[in-house]
Amino acid sequence: MGMGDPVILAPFQRAICMQKWLMPITCHMFTYTLKDSARIWWNSQKAGSILNYQDLKAKFQSHFSQQKKFTKSHLAVHNIKQREGKRTRAFTTRYTDDTLQILGLHEDQRISGFVHGLRTRSLVEHLSTDLPSTYKGLMEKTYTWIEAREVATNGAPNDRRENFERSKNSS
């Protein structure tokens, strides 16, 4: 069980079936497989707080599941910025991936956050003239601009010359 990853429960489940263990034995044997953080978790459980193996398994998976998603607030969209020296295409992909994790994010907020996070002045100017009303439209217009720039510059990364001037005193 090592790190406590629930995926490792599968071999233990098979052992239960093969050995035909009774539930008290199953729980007892399960605890012998725990190490490191899983052992610490087990030791922190109050006596009588786990009713049976199914309860133990559910609590273990809930605590150690790597599939838990951190739910971000819609305000997090304003913290997604194009990093200094990073290409616009990379930012566009990262922004789209990051905003998909924000539940309930309105399309207007997604569009506004994208334009606000850009560091490439000419793209912001391009998008601002006739700003698309949908995120899909915004991405189509953005990728058209990116591809045109790549063709015009033979794929050379020249986004840096277009960056906004950021004053040291602005916050």
Task: Give the secondary structure arrangement, pairings included.
Elements: H1 9-19, H2 23-32, H3 36-44, H4 53-64, H5 88-100, H6 107-117, H7 121-128, H8 135-152
Question: What does this molecule look like?
Answer:
Keywords: Nucleotidyltransferase, RNA-directed DNA polymerase, Transferase. Pfam families: Retrotrans_gag. By secondary structure, this protein is an all-alpha fold. It has 2 domains: 6-64, no CATH class; 74-162. Helix content is 54%, strand content 0%. The chain is built from 8 helices and no strands. It has helices at 9-19, 23-32, 36-44, 53-64, 88-100, 107-117, 121-128, 135-152. The longest helix has 18 residues, at 135-152. The radius of gyration is 25 Å and the shape is elongated. It starts with 8 loop residues before the first helix and ends in a 19-residue tail after the last helix. The model is unreliable at 1-7 and 165-171 (pLDDT under 50).
